[in-house]
From TrEMBL:
Keyword Protein biosynthesis in annotation: yes
Cofactor(s) recorded in Swiss-Prot or TrEMBL: Zn(2+)
Cellular localisation: Cytoplasm
Species lineage: Eukaryota, Metazoa, Echinodermata, Eleutherozoa, Echinozoa
Superkingdom of the source species: Eukaryota
Species of origin: Strongylocentrotus purpuratus
Keywords: Cytoplasm, Metal-binding, Protein biosynthesis, Zinc
Entry's family note: Belongs to the class-II aminoacyl-tRNA synthetase family. Alax-L subfamily.
Protein name: Alanyl-transfer RNA synthetases family profile domain-containing protein
Coiled-coil regions, chain positions: none
Length: 411
């Protein structure tokens, strides 16, 4: 009873026979996008590939070296989705992607252990769990978990792992007395036949269809990462089990090394150093804004003081902003010049402003916008917009110069 993968969770290969092969189309994630994929659904005499269930995702692997893209359970059958057909009655060899499977076994068995200890010690029931791609969480029926409780739970979990306790699946009759004493979140609606119990000797028995480690020592270690507020009255407890603890630690260590170099201090001072940098950056930003405003005023005054000034005032300042442009425009005054002001990447995108006598601005503004391949609007006698091609600025200058003869400048 049950699939081969459930009876022999450490086996990675199986030779079996094709029972049926039917054409099908399923929705699969290909390169992060859901797509319809045409292929075949295979039912085999038995399977070493686990179909999804109990919160554990389905396996990956091959059948006669053809990749299996999805495995689901329908009643007592496992449905393997592949892109090439196989003859019913023919013998096939299945192989499991063991790295993925063993990872799932470690996370799933780890969940059983944390669930059992959280219930025994604090009376927190597990209401659901999620085996994530990087980290997993257990939804516990408690509004809060304190830091001390978290540490205790982690300690007890790892103590149990060190005791090398066997973890064994067995089958019992539906309706048997034993079933009343096991932990369960219910059976699937289409369940048929005997019921499977997974027992951690002396700790708990749990109704479950998953593939599990045979001994708690195979979990290596469990790290409780932290607890976050979940759905109403619930808390999500994040954890890593087994090899994930090692790979996560490796990732953290590499990050730490990179931060040591860029922050020029050891890990104990990282947070302090980042705070310091953020504070000084804030001060520097404030200073540069003040200087930019003052510069706008001075530039405008300098222009106005020149007796032989060009009636077209054209300024591009890469580090400027729209406030800088408005200050220049106000300080010069619309009656004193026709202005083309811009900020941003010289040959790329940026902001622009056309200012001067309202009638000229209204006529010339939209034409400047289209020359700079941007868009904008006229407001308070100024035309302000976004440009995508500031490289065409000289053409806009040329256009505005043609308008300067209309100016009746005060001097
Ligand atoms: Zn389970």
């Amino acid at each position: 009873m049950g699939f081969y993968c459930q009876r022999h969770s450490y086996e990675t290969e199986l030779t079996t026979k094709v029972v049926s092969c039917t054409q099908a189309q399923v929705k699969l994630e290909v390169n992060g996008r859901k797509q319809n994929v045409k292929g075949f659904e295979l039912i085999l005499e038995d399977t070493v590939l686990f179909p999804e269930g109990g919160g554990q995702p389905d396996d990956r692997g091959t059948i006669n070296n053809v990749e299996v893209l999805r495995i689901t359970r329908k009643g007592a059958d496992a449905i393997h989705f592949v892109t090439s057909s196989l003859e019913p009655g023919s013998e096939v060899t299945q192989k499991v992607d063991w790295k993925r499977r063993f990872d799932h076994m470690q996370q799933h068995s780890g969940q059983h252990l944390v669930t059992a200890i959280a219930d025994d010690k604090y009376g927190w029931k597990t209401t659901s769990w999620d085996l994530g791609r990087e980290k997993s969480f257990i939804e516990l029926d408690t509004p809060k978990i304190s830091q001390e409780q978290l540490e205790e739970l982690e300690k007890d979990t790892n103590d149990a792992i060190r005791k090398c306790i066997p973890m064994t699946p067995r089958l019992v009759e539906l309706g048997s007395k034993e079933l009343q004493e096991v932990r369960t979140r219910g059976l699937p609606d289409d369940h048929v036949g005997l019921v499977r119990i997974v027992e951690i000797e002396g700790i708990e028995a749990n109704l479950c269809c998953g593939t599990h480690v045979s001994n708690l020592s195979h979990l290596q270690a469990i790290k409780l990462l932290g607890a976050e507020k979940g759905k109403k009255g619930k808390t999500n407890l994040y954890f890593l089990a087994g090899n994930r603890v090692l790979s996560y630690l490796g990732k953290c260590y590499n990050n730490e090394k990179a931060l040591n170099l860029s922050l020029k201090c050891g890990p104990d001072e990282h947070v302090q150093q980042v705070d310091k940098i953020q504070k000084s950056l804030k001060t520097a930003n404030k200073t540069s804004l003040t200087v930019l405003r003052e510069l706008a005023v001075l530039e405008a005054r300098h222009y106005k003081l020149n007796p032989n000034r060009d009636p077209l005032l054209s300024i591009h300042r890469k580090e400027g902003d729209s406030e800088y442009m408005i200050i220049v425009a106000n300080e010069v005054g619309p009656e004193n010049a026709l202005m083309l002001l811009s900020t941003g990447e010289e040959n790329g995108a940026g902001l622009f402003l056309v200012a001067g006598p309202t009638d000229i601005v209204e006529e010339a503004g939209p034409r400047v916008a289209s020359l700079l391949e941007g868009k904008g609007a006229c407001k308070n006698g100024r035309y302000q917009g976004k440009a995508t091609k500031l490289s065409k600025r000289s053409e806009a200058e040329k256009l505005l110069r043609d308008f300067t003869h209309k100016l009746n400048l005060n001097s």
